[in-house]
């Protein structure tokens, strides 16, 4: 298996390398790719230094799989060129997610849609992945009518520059700003750019991608996405109304039995998910599971996950593992 990592010098690319190593993904040849600025730099994988190469050089080598995390415009321009030489691209940017001809995949939910013909596969947005991981089994059982979600998102979701901004501010050092405002000691209700409807693109990703992954356009979703000064993972307060009533102990049971979900919910000993403890882990953690007494058939959840892991790198590598296992590459 010849594998290219496009965006290998970035936050997600770095975690991808870790995840590939941990899961012992079968690699015969590894191509580490970034922008022209990084060509020639060394990046380590499994104790060996690899020289970073440019995208055109990587395409010449016709990799079997390319894992992309280099931003939307890079992906729009280059993913089709990899696909033309027979590479299967799994893309972390938002470039292809809502394209009707591209699959938007969370392996535990819908990897079975994939075929050999899918040459560009989209990895969903980090906030969406963790939410649908918790909601998919509940949707199957009780059918979701409406979701109200508020996010508390880590600075690592914005990339290297945002983590540096927070660290500089914490150290009292003046530096480059990734956000319009200070993030240390702040909460910024502005993730990604604003759309014409007054919502941010991040908020609308939660709406559109959820409907696409759960394959149900009737699910109503409304979202508020907020950046907070954490680095470990994203948190979400999710209020979900179902068509059918549920039993709380059955909800807990269903979530506990879901692959990739860990229930952390024991109020007697203050157990609930937190980003500091989700950091570096692959699972989606769910707690504060309780009935919303203000209207029928409605549930409140607190959902936390490492956005660089299940929200990005781990989900991408899991898609690649599925392709290999099913002989689709
Ligand atoms: N952070 C998250 O939680 C998260 C989650 C899901 C998806 N994503 C998506 O993943 C992508 C990367 O995010 P990140 O957080 O890792 O960002 P990042 O830390 O800023 O890294 C960006 C990477 O892309 C490379 N790159 C930039 N422009 C390029 C170009 N023209 N050609 C080739 N490579 C180029 C950079 O290379 P240089 O070092 O050479 O500049 C770097 O390796 C984005 O599309 C983002 O939306 C991020």
Features:
single chain; 329 residues; alpha/beta; Rossmann fold; Dihydrodipicolinate Reductase, domain 2; 2 domains; 6-stranded mixed beta sheet; 5-stranded parallel beta sheet; 10 helices; globular; binds NADP nicotinamide-adenine-dinucleotide phosphate; Asp_semialdehyde_DH; protein dimerization activity
The amount of beta strand, in percent, is: 15-25%
In one word, what is the shape?
globular
CATH class of the largest domain: Alpha Beta
Summed up, the domain count is: 2
Distance between the termini: 9 Å
Strand tally? 13
Number of helices: 10
Radius of gyration: 20 Å
How would a crystallographer describe the biggest sheet? 6 strands, mixed
Q: Helix/strand/pairing class, anyone?
A: alpha/beta
Bound molecules: NADP nicotinamide-adenine-dinucleotide phosphate
Mean pLDDT: 98
What proportion of the residues is helical, as a percent range?
25-40%
As laid out across the biggest beta sheet, the strand order is: 9-8-10-13-12-11
CATH topology label of the largest domain:
Dihydrodipicolinate Reductase, domain 2
Low-confidence segments? none
Order of helices and strands: EHEEEHEHEHEHEHHEEHEHEEH
Supply the CATH architecture of the largest domain. Answer: 2-Layer Sandwich
CATH superfamily of the largest domain: Dihydrodipicolinate Reductase, domain 2
């Amino acid at each position: 298996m010849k594998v290219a990592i496009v965006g290998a010098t970035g936050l997600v690319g770095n975690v991808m390398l870790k995840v590939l190593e941990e899961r012992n993904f079968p690699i015969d040849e590894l191509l580490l790719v970034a922008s022209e600025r990084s060509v020639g730099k060394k990046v380590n994988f499994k104790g060996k230094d690899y020289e970073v190469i440019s995208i055109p050089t990587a395409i010449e080598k016709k990799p079997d799989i390319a894992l992309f995390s280099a931003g939307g415009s890079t992906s729009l321009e280059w993913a089709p060129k990899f696909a033309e030489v027979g590479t299967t691209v799994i893309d972390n940017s938002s470039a292809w997610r809502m394209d009707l001809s591209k699959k938007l995949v969370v392996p535990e939910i819908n990897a079975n849609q994939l075929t050999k013909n899918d040459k560009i596969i989209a990895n969903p947005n980090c906030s969406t992945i963790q939410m649908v991981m918790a909601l998919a089994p509940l949707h199957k059982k009780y059918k979701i009518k409406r979701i109200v979600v508020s996010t508390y998102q880590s600075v690592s979701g914005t990339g290297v520059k945002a983590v540096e901004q927070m660290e500089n501010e914490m150290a009292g050092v003046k530096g480059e700003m990734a956000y319009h405002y200070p993030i240390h000691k702040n909460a910024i209700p502005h993730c990604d750019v604003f759309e014409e409807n007054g919502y941010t693109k991040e908020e609308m990703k939660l709406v559109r991608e959820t409907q696409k992954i759960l394959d149900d356009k009737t699910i109503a979703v409304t979202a508020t996405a907020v950046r907070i000064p954490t680095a470990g993972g994203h948190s979400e307060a999710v209020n979900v109304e179902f068509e059918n009533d549920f039993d709380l102990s059955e909800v807990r049971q269903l979530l506990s039995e879901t692959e990739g979900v860990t229930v952390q919910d024991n109020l007697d000993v203050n157990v609930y998910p937190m980003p500091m403890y989700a950091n570096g882990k692959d699972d989606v953690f769910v707690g504060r599971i309780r009935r919303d007494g203000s209207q029928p058939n409605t549930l409140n959840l607190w959902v936390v996950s490492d956005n660089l892991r299940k929200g990005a790198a781990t989900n991408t590598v899991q898609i690649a593992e599925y392709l290999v296992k099913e002989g689709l590459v």
